[in-house]
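Data availability (excerpt). The following record was deposited with the supplementary files.
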Amino acid sequence: MADVLNPDAAELAASLNAASDMFASMGFSRLLDADRKAGIVRLEFDALPRFCHSNGQIVQGGFVTAWLDSSMAQAARLHAGRPVGVASLEVKVSFLRRVGPGKVVAEGRVTRMGRRVAFLDASLFDAVSGVLLATASSSALIEDV
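Predicted structure:
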C-alpha cells in the first residue's frame, strides 16, 4: 500500500485493504493521495499485458472504465464523511489516447455532492509521462451503509 501522505489517505488505505481482492483483480497498485475536503482521490494501477488486446498493445476499455469509476467512487466515499455505498447511475467515458501496458493514475473528483446523489468526474494519466489518456463523468446514488 502507499506511503501514508495524510490522515485522509490513511483512512482510505484501510478501506481499500478491506476490498483488496477486487482491487487486485483490476491491477490496483497503490493509493497516491486523498483529500476529503476537496473530494479528490488519486489511485495508481498497473495496466497489465493480460488486460490488453491487439497483440498486448491496447488495454481493453472495460479496465479503463473500471479505473475511472473506482477513483470517482472512492472520492465520493471519502468526501461523504460517513460510511456510504456509491452506486453509479451512469458513467460516460471519453477515450482520448491509446492506453498500453504500464502504470496509470486515476484521479477521481467530486464535482457536487448532495445527501443522496453525487456528480463526479475523473481523469486517467500515464504515470510516467503525465499524458491524459481518458476522462469520465458520472452521477451516483449515495446510500448510507
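Summary of structural features: The chain has a mean pLDDT of 93.
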